[in-house]
Amino acid sequence: MLMKEYRICMPLTVEEYQIGQLYMISKHSHEQSERGEGVEVVQNEPYEDPEHGSGQFTEKRIYLNNKLPSWARAVVPKIFYVTEKAWNYYPYTITGNACSFLPKFSIHIETKYEDNKGSNDNIFGSEPKEEETEVCFVDIVYDEIPERHYKESEDLRYFKSKKTNRGFLQEGWISTHDPIMCSYKLVTVKFEVWGLQTRVEQFVHKVIRDVLTLGHRQAFAWVDEWIDMTMEEVREYERATQQATNLKIGTFPPAISISETQLPSSARSGPNSAPSTPLSTEAPDFLSVPKDRPRKKSAPETLTLPGTGRRDSLFKLPSFFSWNSSPQPE
């Protein structure tokens, strides 16, 4: 098991991001979906939890036909998808996913949002842990993203919002910008397979970091498109976009699915909200693992499969993966 805490600051307020997150996820999922691949929304409806209160339940299927390595395609049905179930009690969410094809593999993400610069060291509780959790600060402006995802219009060093007058974010912007908020994500990755565990868990975290950087970056780059929306308006946009995306993907019968992991007792009646776990030999067009990142190379970009002598990219998480699905309606 490898646990890391990610802190992603944004030049927004927590209240604003409730709208922006919904808009970004819907638009991004539609852009990255195509016939037979992408995100199909099965359910998206209000949910009431006795402990967490009003929230939103979302169930999605993420189709992975072309995102499996060649060795996996040989043994799974033609139609392979991830099922993601999410309970979102904005500004608090929990997500737990596990793969039926890889039963020893799971990802659990707990997310909280606060209006600060990422300075809350006890946001997930101060009880002692078996080992220290690594804290990773993500800079949506200056952390590099895969070159194929670079768009000049989304380069936050040169972007300025016409409606909010925020932008042209320079070095040190997190210390000086007002407003400022932070998305805190406690991510636990498990791959309990002897000989591969450490490398796979490190690799998945590496890709999750890229996903988080890209998603939060786009949320601000598109701010002028959503900043004037009400919750009712963004929900209508979400419904229309989800219908269009489902039509774009097409309808498929169930084959192999991925079910959520066991959540803490406090969350089993509700929470869960965010990622899913695709696999791929070749990086999907909408998310490749960067080859020339300046960050520490803490994990391999390819993994050698036991008994084959081959080196395959084992896990590629698409960029709709790691942010949370649906803040609750107002």
From TrEMBL:
One of its GO terms (molecular function) is phosphatidylinositol transfer activity. Belongs to the PtdIns transfer protein family. PI transfer class IIB subfamily. It comes from Oryzias sinensis. Residues 262-314 are annotated as: Disordered. It holds the Pfam family IP_trans. This is Cytoplasmic phosphatidylinositol transfer protein 1. Keywords: Lipid transport, Lipid-binding, Transport. CDD domains: SRPBCC_PITPNC1_like.
